[in-house]
Amino acid sequence: MLQGLMPGPMPTLLDYFPPTDPYLDVIHVDDDILVVNKQSGLLSVPGKDPSLWDCIEYRARQTWPSAGMCHRLDKDTSGVLVLALNKPAHGFIGSQFEHRKTTKHYVARVSGILEQDSGLVDLPLATDWLNKPRQKVDYEHGRPAQTEWQVIEREQEATRVRLVPLTGRTHQLRVHMKAIGHVILGDAFYAEGADFTAADRLQLHAAELGFTHPTTKEFMTFSAPVPF
Prior knowledge:
Layout: E1 26-29, E2 33-38, H1 56-61, E3 68-69, E4 78-84, H2 87-98, E5 103-111, E6 118-122, E7 125-127, E8 135-137, E9 146-154, E10 158-165, H3 172-179, H4 193-197, E11 204-212, E12 219-223
Parallel strand pairs: 4-11
Antiparallel strand pairs: 1-2, 2-4, 3-4, 5-10, 5-11, 6-9, 7-8, 9-10, 11-12
């Protein structure tokens, strides 16, 4: 469990109590794809520990046994996820993620007030091996990572922003926002003190996802309302 307000709290998945209402929030389903709105606190795929079996993929397979995850969201991130319901669809959609043919944007609430209206964070990222699974900016060994951001609304002590990841590194949005001095509120890995306790969950939501349908070849965009 998290203890007090010490900097850099290290969360654990051993006390895993995923939300169950709704059990599975379906946005769209057809013969090829299943699009859902994942709740914060629910894993995308099973964890390594046997107690971490409950996840979006498991819940989907109870109704659609062939469902397979095409990409993932962090446990504490909510929002749009797509699963494939057959192998050809999985390969077709997976290739789009691999070759950056999808479109996606996130909404986040970050600490402090961003003075500019928009910008680009271009900082290489690598695993922080001493504090795994945290990531860090690493100019020597990091992989290229770019995030576009745009202010949606300025609050009294926080800013609501639209985030567009141009690359897909682990924890990219979370580390990039912290690196420019505006950590995402409620982030158990990267926020400290008041920035961590300012929200009862990670204030990061995958609001929109677009990709080409594997059969119709139509470019489709799905969205989920921001829950904070």
